[in-house]
Amino acid sequence: xxxDLYGAADLHSPEDLQNPGDPHGADDLSGAxxxxxxxxxxxALAPVLARARRRAVRAGDGEIDSGHLLHxxxxxDEHALGLAAPSPTQxxxxxxxxxxxxxxxxxxxxxxxxxxxxxxxxxxxxRLALPLPPGLSDAAAAAVGRCRVAALLxxxxxxxxxxxxxxxxxxxxxxxxxMLKGAGADPAAVAERARRR
Length: 197
Prior knowledge:
mainly alpha; 11 helices; about 0% strand
């Protein structure tokens, strides 16, 4: 389980987005990474990681998987949601699909997202040079690692939510990509839109 449980936190609190230094969220996720230069710290992704952690804890899941990251990202960033689901109908369908998981439908989603998903991404936790927050599934850790590399390649100070959306959608074996597809979105098209910004 996770080092800290934040089940009492309000998922829709504005503090999730406006106060990344809150002790009930971002700081505990990045731990020792605070001493390192960005983009190795959680930075702009800290609120998303904190929200995903609370979703996983409330659902009783043993790890933060790519589906938790996707849900947390889309509910906290309207631009990311617009790229994932361009029309209001698509957005409603996608968020409804993600909400089904959060209230307990689809028990198969509660199984761990481990090596099989990680193999599909083509990158493993051990191969990542950058430090990662604890409690992530292999596929989620791979997506976070790749989005940090993407930020470096475009000379950005840190990865942002659109970097994360692109990497979550680009791994066809990840739970996030499967959820996008299940809600009628094309994960490859979502990744392309996110990279075009």
